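Bench log, entry 3. Co-assembly request; chain sequences pasted below exactly as received.
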Amino acid sequence: MHEPHDMPGEGRPDDDLILSVRDLAVHFPLGGGLLGGGKRLLRAVDGVDLSLKRGECLGLVGESGSGKSTVALSILGLLAPTRGRITVDGQVVTSRQSGDRKALARTVQIVFQDPYASLNPRQTVRRTLEDPLRVHGVTAKSEIADRVAAMLRHVGLRPEQADRYPHEFSGGQRQRIGIARALILNPKIVICDEPVSALDVSIRAQIINLLLELKDTLGLSYIMISHDLGVVEHMSDRVAVMYLGRIVENGDWREIFERPAHPYTRALIAAIPDPLHHAPLATTGGDLPNPLNPPNGCAFSPRCRFTVDVCRSEPGPVLETRADGHAVRCWRSEEIAGRLAAAADWDVNS
Amino acid sequence: MKLRANLVIGGSLFALAILVGLLAPWLAHTDPVMDANLMNAEEPPSWTWWFGTDDQGRDIYSRVVYGARVSLTVGIISQLINSVIGVALGLSAGYFGGWWDDVVNALTNLMLAIPSLIFALAIMAVLGPGLTSLLIALGLTNWSFTCRIARASALSLRSQGYVQAATVLGYGDLRIMITQLLPNMLGPLIVIGTLGMGSAVLSEAALSFLGLGVRPPFPSWGSMLSEAREQITTAPWLSIFPGLAIFLTVLGLNLLGDGLRDILDPQSRSRRT
Amino acid sequence: MTGTPLLEVEDLKLDLDTGSGRVAAAEGVSFRIDRGETFGLVGESGCGKSITALALIGLLRHPLSIGGGVIRFEGREIQHLSAARQRDLRGNRIAMIFQEPMTALNPVSPVGRQIAEMFVLHKGKSWREADRLAVEALANVRVPAPERRVKDYPHQLSGGMRQRVMIAIALACGPDLLIADEPTTALDVTVQAEIIELMRNLCAERGTAILMISHDLGLVANVCRRVAVMYAGRIVEERGSADIFRAPLHPYTQGLVASLPRLGSRAALGRARLQEIAGVVPAITHFPDGCRFNPRCAQATEICRTAAPDVDLLEAGGLVRCHHHA
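Structure output for the full assembly:
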């Protein structure tokens, strides 16, 4: 089964962890045909373990269909897991029907990708920020006004702008409003779901800097979901790489980017175009497999150039944690690392 | 600028009809019911009798003016009832989904399958004629389109980021529906509501024409048409003027509906480029 | 390469009818692309890069129109050609692929048919022959089992496969120029790598020039030999792609290059605060006077606020449009 790979070390207090996800699985039954053909099961997330320490930023990387958004929705309590246990700041997350919805709201929040669709066009910024406070029992008018004004300043907007509607703001400013809304209840964890990929390129740095500043000043912990590895490397302390519903590699950011151990992580990094050279991009071959019909053995085996017979046989590789806390789900990671190092030496020497 | 023309003409016609109804006591020349005088029976339109008189010598102009009250009351109130029912069912069905959505869908399909006028007729037959019965009958039978629109809007809005954000912020379902979904679907609902008022005015006329509307002798445009049908060849003005009133009001409401659709449709508003 | 360039754009101006008057959505746009060359047009939303592409291919529609300038294809002006001649040019000589292939493909027609149509329309082939060529075209864009895939409808294919089909359609008639407008923005990085390599290799084999349009300077610099950076409707810098990335000259380009977290930079230099470009991207209707970048530029002086800078041609080739470029 899946070994929790980064349980807090012995002697370290458990409350160092603000979030723990254990063996999370989210399966969606897809209707069979009209004639009752067997129901198919989409294993969007299948046995994921994650931990987030206080004040840490965990990068969650993977392509569409990897399950990273499903993990996020489960942590937010918007999806009922099929299996597994999510604990947020000591509180067990269950599905949205439970009465703990509000308590969870004060712990975990989310910043969405699209700053246009994620703000109610018919509500002023003030209303967008005041309503959550009222819902959570803040009644004193002066307190509400103070907190809204303070939050607007935090995200780099002026309190006078509170009575405007979303369409009066630019994309970057809207994303600031989205961030303010996520922070207004003083949550401890913020899930940033592609927070800059819908923004103009010249605006992205502003938002990235803002998020990092807020993390330090407000003592937040982040889960940073992005397909932009440059952004993930810049922001994350640790990085988990997902492929087809499973974590294939998890470790310190420096380890992941300097010594990626899983062939998929290598492929992701190699696929990023080098602006300084017209070198061909490293291609992986093939599309993402159909998640309804995942390959046997290692899910990456059909696209991996290191695949041997064992990779295609069941059971697939397990996520193995090395002594330094770096976890990899690959039968051959050490062998491959050795071969690549040898090849690099050979390159240098020849 | 054609868009604005719809809005202005439609709005003016509708406003005019409402004004006429409100100011009826001042606009009318005579009392629409009491001032019968057989001496003046079936006078054609003239300077004295603008729209002519009926077989009891009542002034058609005054009756048309007072008739606006019934027709518009029925049109507006019954459509309001329809809108409330349709929005409540459609919005909740689209938001919650599941078995409740199935129930509402089945109900809507049922309503769409039965011609609403026949259904209203059946209700009137049970309740008996009269203004209240008319409001109930028309208010319960014409909400299916509103419901469809509200459901479809709720379904598409439900996945918007701000609705998800509200859920994450711990808003209750009712609050999400009222503050996040409803304001963003008002545009099409107003359009449907305006068009629905026009059809309610027509339905009132039809029911009154069949003798199931407001009790004579108090005038409504439909009942006036009904009473006039036997004199259509001898005294055509008895049908023409209430008919014209219905026509202009319904036309006005339809133009208004179209005009509102054009300005409320987010597609036509200034788009970011 | 000397002689007549494949495509030459001179002082192109594109007007936007706002309903209450015309504004220039792009102006003074000039560049040339030689046969078989790869050229990139980079900028943010609203900078005018995509509408420039649409103008080249004759697909500008109201409220946009060509307000001036010349577009020459193989030396002939094409901006005033009749609709029929433009149609002929499109597909046959100039082809285009878009960001979202799902919207560019006909959802109710099998993809094989849509490729075959190109051969029937532009090459006068019979449908039987065209169907055979369609299978071949799919094989060329490395779609596995092409004889079965031709019968698939667009929704049955993945995003990457759909973009392959788009490339097959675009290259069906052997065009001289392929315009690729954000061809991989909707795709995952590993799929992006596949599509870019496919496009690059096919075009290199056939000598097809590429005009690539993207917001991603890094990607364009990797794919294209020369890059033009657009800001608020004007080209502000145009140079060899490696130069533009190594030593950008225009403050906007400098800002872009410096503001993006680049893979490996944190490991090398530590996590420094990213250099920001202040302010917001101006709306088309409110382009600033003078140099359009001046409200966001740290180096802006009085002259930047009043006078639009002229193009400075660089000795080493390329150009920059900045008052403070010595």
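Chain B touches chain C at residues 272-273 (CB under 8 Å). Residues 266-273 of chain B have pLDDT under 50 and may be disordered.
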